[in-house]
Design goal:
This protein is an alpha/beta fold and about 350 residues long. Helices cover about 50% and strands about 15% of the residues. The mean pLDDT is about 95.
Amino acid sequence: MTDTNAKKQLPGILRLLIKLFQIILYIQIQIIFIPIAIIGLVDAIYKEMVKSKRLGISFSAIKALQYRWLMHYFNTRPDSLSVSFTKIFPCESHFGMWSIMGALIISQRIFGFTTRLGKLVEPGKETGDSTAGIRVLMFDRIMEKYVDEMEQIVLPGAGFDLIALHFTKGKNVKVFELDQVNTLNVKVETLKKAGIKHDWITYIPVDYSNESWVDKLLEAGFDKTKKTLFLWQSVSLYLGADIVKETLRKMADLCVDGSIITQDFYSRAFASGEYSKMAKRYLSIIEKMGEPSKFGIDMSNDPKAAVESFLKECGLIMTEYIQFGEKLDIEPFYCIVEAEKL
Ligand SMILES: C[S@@+](CC[C@H](N)C(=O)[O-])C[C@H]1O[C@@H](n2cnc3c(N)ncnc32)[C@H](O)[C@@H]1O
């Protein structure tokens, strides 16, 4: 081996040695955490799966909150509100999360040991298993882009997302959040107990089986003449195609010129669990908790055209389209779109 070759290889070898050293240190910390992690895991499973079922709360919304908690501690998206919320929230265990993730969090903070959880993929290089974090950031950017120009913001199926609290505090905009009765009532109770100010947001619990969300929204003071941003994140996957279409048509009816509807779509292959083993496992847990994934768009051919045409059927014209995994040679599985009334 020549000197030059040896030099070229040195950083690689050094990197490997550092990684090895980090893994050894991480294992030591993880061993210390094992007894607490066992107790924490039991507490977390009990709260997330047993208690949430008893209280009739959306499990998929709990999972979304959990990811935001992780992003905060892994430094990919600061979110102290979600952490304060989780500490009081009856269906998640802050202690459990710390006991399970603590060794990784400490290892990342003290000596830079990073796993997939501590990294965000570069835009366009998302895979089916690495969309969770970057998707949250993209919706943050959309909210940031429109918050000052809109007069109203509506979040149907808001779950335990605190994006509206982050971006609309002190802004001259009316905000409405809608979700199922139990989910939204627990959200408001938790915000109160956690001392998180939320009085500028109107929370509208809706029983979708016998109430119209549009009527409830109008009763709560929504003004059809005002420019509105509808932000519908991670909801359509769990609804039937007819309900997705009907909901989007109703949103379109409520829009005046300049209003925007933003949402995400999964591919049919993703929704049916054919996309990847990891996605299938995740979706099957959510299904067991009462929320089967039902809706996806056929993205196997021309995904952009397929999404555009679906939106057209709902009375909408697509204005922005972000395809995940675009720079990779993989089957399209997810996109985030913005649309306006046709
Ligand atoms: C995966 S969660 C997403 C929550 C939130 N948008 C987020 O990103 O964290 C799906 C949410 O849709 C709500 N949901 C379920 N059925 C719904 C319906 N028919 N219309 C609107 N929202 C619904 C659930 O209660 C749950 O909060």
